[in-house]
Write a structure and sequence with these properties.
membrane; elongated; 34 helices; alpha+beta
């Protein structure tokens, strides 16, 4: 009989059952939905109600002032405020994904409210054109809105977090003809479009346009299928005709159209094929249309709610009061003046158990529990029949329990699952516990005082983290705390929000008394609410709570003394010291920073000013920062006017950057290095005492830039960080004489230095022909000594002999001959040298141990 009573509430649409349980009896009073504009948030969120100023209504025992009132889903008033905004009539309002109420008035101004009816500043406008043309219609989706102006232009905000309006493409003919107006709009959300941008569907006359930021394209949804291709002709596009209302499916794949002749047409957005085509009794367009999950479409006229499916006759629900359809991911909530219902397709698990005449394993298991409670032997008989499918039956009972709103039915189904689990050895034992945990959370938030009627599918899609966030935003802190504890989640977020909300709401409470409330040190707690007592206790027990964040909130609320008292309880000096400085407690901040021993605290300017007058603290800080935290040291030197010290640090930093292995493998680090050196040069130039350093840094940056260019052109990482001499020498070795000459010119290298460098470079690559040619270009300013030295170092006697005779200094000539072992020529040169016989005597000692001494003996004796 229980199965019959449950299934009797269902309605059959073709081969699918639907149910419409009542969730709440609305607790509000004197609320007539037909006289108000209403915005209902998804996922069982709040309901915003305000008197519709576009309608003439009779005022009863109420103020002429319009009030924006916010209720929970059970009709419990959460907050209210007087609506007194300029800008014309209220065109539309909707809740964003983060439960911010977005309200758009006629001139395009957007007013935002939180769930406590507090205005969020600043106000935003849709733009100058919206202001001039006036908004006539707006269509919202989860986190954006599209507005239509009187001039037929479309403007969009695709993300309420950024609030940046932009204009969409013009619909052909709409802006030129004032008499031509769209009959309806629909939005395809960005996550369902191929371009990733929002697409607006605009019905104008017989056409439907898809409009985005770049273009407006006319589309046709009435193309025949393959088997009907012979029907295709030029007039086929007129089968749908003008559209009076349309909505996009939750997954963005289908579009529901209500045509001028009273047809409900569902077409695929991609396939362009008609999935449903049903003719209604009336061509009058419905007041509302909504998708019920992905299985059916709801259309609402006065007193008649019709549900249309793919096949079969529609289902009608009749109401003697106005209703609002609130689409959800798995159904539609139906809000009326007196109740809130949830229309959804009956889950497969529930249908298998409670369908009249069902003999599924789950139905037999549920029936077995009933027999067991009545001590009937048929319980064992049912279990024997389903023994092979017992795990499947247990799973179905658990799943069906999760989809139930009725607590008694939840218990019955879970008892059946536990009963069957006792006889099943291969079933996961934690499934029942997991579902029980989820249902306890859902039942807690479904309580009318909380008023969040989530289904289990919505709960999984929303996630517990977001649910906790919504509870604390609604100031249901105690429930949020208990759910966090129950699910093993972090409690700190809840307690922090409670503490901040308590400070905001206690403007008249003295600081010392409020501190005692927050820290739970009051001797008597009878003056506190039950929620506050529980949260006080948790605030005391929760280790690692960020008192600094609470103190920051207190400071922002203008309670600096309370902030200073709270920050004393902050255990983390990294958060404690900056906050103390921000509230003007510099001396306390310095003491705390010193006591903590935390060298990673980033000192602000106030800290620098304090240690400047304390020699020991200053010297310790400089010594530490020079080794470990040079960024701190730069900030300190800048704050104290020691610009040259900052320049030295920058210069050193550029050298440290050069030690990076990546610096020799390409260009990414060379640019920053050069900028650092140039910045150091500019800082040096600001002090008269460091002119040399400024010029040196400037030259260094110039050399580094040239070397980087050389590495880029030669594709060899051999130039950067070499000296000017090495750079010139390397260029010549690579036979890049033009680059070598450029370096010589840029850095004003003298001719003598140039000759030495080029001579040795040519000798390194043994280009003797080029060397000889170079020696004959002009008389070398260095003489021929570099040529001789280069040839001798290269062990090329023959080449050296080309230049030794050209040495004008006889001493140098003699020494050169001696170095290549030509004793006779060395002796002749020494004999001619006018040095008092010093060179000759040195040669005598040098060659005395060689066999060549005999050849030197006679000339030496003759000279002596």
């Amino acid at each position: 009989m229980a199965n019959v009573s449950v299934a009797a509430e269902w309605q059959l649409l073709y081969n699918r059952y639907y149910r419409k349980p009542e969730i709440y009896q609305m607790r509000w009073k004197h609320v007539d939905l037909s006289r108000n504009k209403v915005a209902c948030a998804s996922f069982g969120g709040p309901i915003a109600v305000i008197r519709d100023d576009s309608k003439i209504v009779q005022l009863y025992a109420e103020s002429a002032l319009r009030k924006l009132r916010i209720f929970n889903s059970a009709g419990v008033l959460l907050s209210e405020t007087v609506w007194k905004h300029p800008g014309g009539r209220l065109i539309g309002m909707s809740w964003s994904d983060d439960q911010t109420l977005i309200s758009i008035v006629q001139d395009g101004t957007i007013y935002r409210y939180n769930i406590h009816a507090e205005l969020i500043q600043p106000n935003v406008t849709m733009g100058k054109e919206c202001f001039e043309q006036n908004v006539v219609e707006c269509v919202f989706w989860g986190n954006g809105v599209v507005c239509l102006t009187e001039g037929g232009q479309l403007f969009c905000i695709s993300d309420f977090k950024t609030m940046k309006p932009y204009k969409l493409a013009d619909v052909p003919g709409l802006t030129e003809d004032d008499m031509l107006q769209p009959t309806c709009l629909a939005v395809r959300e960005p996550q369902y479009t191929m371009s990733g941008n929002v697409e607006v569907l605009v019905a104008v006359g017989d056409e439907i346009y898809v409009v985005d930021e770049d273009e407006a394209q006319s589309i046709r949804f009435d193309e025949p299928s393959g088997e009907d291709s012979e029907m295709q002709n030029d007039d086929y596009g007129n089968l749908i005709g003008p559209v009076q209302k349309m909505i996009v499916s939750p997954n963005g794949k289908f579009l529901t159209l209500f045509t001028h002749d009273g047809r409900v047409v569902v077409v695929g957005m991609e396939s362009k094929q008609i999935a449903i085509d049903y003719s209604c009794e009336s061509a009058l367009p419905p007041q509302q249309m909504a998708w019920c999950g992905m299985d059916s479409v709801l259309l609402y006229w006065d007193e008649d709610l019709m549900m249309v499916g793919p096949l079969g006759d529609p289902v009608h629900y009749f109401y003697d009061e106005p209703v609002i359809l609130i689409p959800e991911c798995d159904g539609v909530r139906i809000l009326s003046n007196t109740s809130l219902e949830f229309l959804q397709r009956v889950p497969d698990s529930t249908e298998s158990i409670f369908k009249i005449g069902s003999t599924s394993p789950a139905a037999l298991l549920y029936d077995a529990l009933d027999h067991f409670d009545r001590r009937s032997a048929k319980a064992d008989e049912n279990l024997r029949l389903i023994r092979s499918s017992l795990s499947e039956a247990v799973e179905s009972c658990i799943d069906a329990a999760g989809h139930e709103f009725d607590v008694t039915r939840q218990r019955a189904l879970l008892r059946a699952a536990s009963y069957g689990q006792a006889f099943s050895s291969n079933f996961q034992r934690d499934r029942v516990q997991e579902t029980c945990r989820t249902l306890r959370v859902l039942n807690a938030v479904r309580d009318p005082d909380i008023g969040i009627p989530l289904s289990i599918q919505q709960y999984k899609l929303l996630t517990p983290v977001v649910l906790i966030s919504r509870l604390i935003n609604a100031h249901s802190h105690l429930l949020a705390l208990r759910i966090s504890e129950y699910l093993g989640m972090n409690k700190e977020v809840v307690i922090m929000h409670w503490a901040c909300a308590k400070i905001t709401a206690s403007a008249s409470t003295p600081d010392a008394h409020l501190l005692e409330i927050l820290l739970d040190k009051m001797e008597e707690t009878h003056g506190l609410k039950r929620d506050d007592i529980a949260l006080n206790f948790q605030l005391q027990l929760c280790r690692g709570i960020s008192y600094a964040a609470v103190a920051t909130h207190a400071d922002n609320c203008g309670r600096r003394k309370l902030a200073a008292m709270l920050v004393e309880h902050e255990p983390r000096s990294t958060k404690q010291v900056p906050l103390l400085l921000s509230i003007g407690e510099e001396d306390t901040a310095l003491v705390k920073a010193t006591e903590s021993g935390d060298t990673d605290l980033r000192p602000p300017l106030e800290f620098f000013a304090m240690i400047q007058g304390r020699i020991l603290a200053r010297d310790l800080f400089v010594a530490y920062a020079r080794c470990h935290k040079q960024e701190f040291l730069k900030d300190f030197f800048l704050s104290t006017g020691q610009i040259h010290e900052v320049a030295f640090l920058l210069w050193k930093e550029s050298w440290d950057m050069g030690k990076n292995p990546m610096a020799s493998k390409g260009s990414p680090l060379h640019g920053p290095r050069i900028k650092l050196i140039e910045k150091a040069s500019n800082l040096f130039s600001q002090t008269k005492e460091h002119t040399f350093e400024s010029k040196a840094a400037e030259e260094h940056a110039k050399l580094l830039r040239i070397q980087h260019e050389l590495e880029a052109s030669t594709k060899q990482a051999i130039f950067v960080d070499s000296s000017i001499n090495d750079t010139i020498r390397t260029c010549i070795v690579l036979r890049n004489n033009r680059a070598a000459a450029k370096v010589k010119s840029e850095f004003k290298v003298s001719d003598k230095r140039w000759y030495w460098l080029k001579t040795f470079a040519l000798a390194t690559i043994k280009d003797w022909e080029a060397l000889e040619k170079f020696s004959k270009e002009k008389r070398p300013p260095t003489g021929f000594r570099p040529f001789v030295e280069a040839c001798i170092d290269a062990d090329e006697k023959a080449e050296a002999l080309k230049y030794i005779p050209k040495l004008s200094d006889l001493v140098e000539r003699g020494e050169a001959y001696a170095r290549i072992g030509m004793a006779k020529e060395a002796a002749d040169a020494a004999a001619q040298a006018n040095d008092g016989g010093e060179l000759l005597e040195r040669f005598r000692k040098t060659f005395s141990q060689n066999a060549i001494f005999d050849t030197l003996k006679m000339p030496f004796q003759g000279v002596s």
